[in-house]
Design a protein that fits this description.
By secondary structure, the protein is an alpha+beta fold. The protein has a single domain, classed as HIT-like (HIT family, subunit A, 2-Layer Sandwich), CATH 3.30.428.10. Helix content is about 25%, strand content about 20%. The protein has a 5-stranded antiparallel sheet, covered by helices on one side. A hairpin with a 7-residue loop joins strand 2 and strand 3. The model has no long low-confidence stretch (mean pLDDT about 95). The protein binds adenosine monophosphate (AMP). Adenosine monophosphate binds next to loops. The site of adenosine monophosphate has 13 residues, from loops.
Amino acid sequence: MCIFCDIVEGKIPSTKVYEDESVIAIRDLNPQAPVHVLVIPRKHFDNIVDMAHNDDGAYSAAVVDAIAEVAKIEGIEDGFRVINNCGEDGGQSVMHVHFHVLGGAKLGEKIL
Ligand code: AMP
């Protein structure tokens, strides 16, 4: 069972900010900044390494495009931070690759 697969499939509710055929972007349940959105590929990859090895590049490109789109929608194009936690040592808690988009304030050095 994967909580983000369930969110992608609509089995668990979420607040969507953006979606396209490859990714969804939802508000984080526990925001660490005024804007805290998660960009999540619809296809399950365990982490960024799994995605790099098993994607032909389409999902990686879609993620970058979606991050830019989210920044535009949220009005933070002038400055924001993208974080990917990879694996246990990287602090990843949900094992479905996702990218934190944080902004809306002057961000401190370490917030996640
Ligand atoms: P990470 O620690 O990088 O794996 O990030 C997982 C993120 O998912 C955390 O910031 C959580 O707050 C967030 N999260 C967990 N469950 C949900 C959910 N149901 N809806 C939105 N965000 C969630």
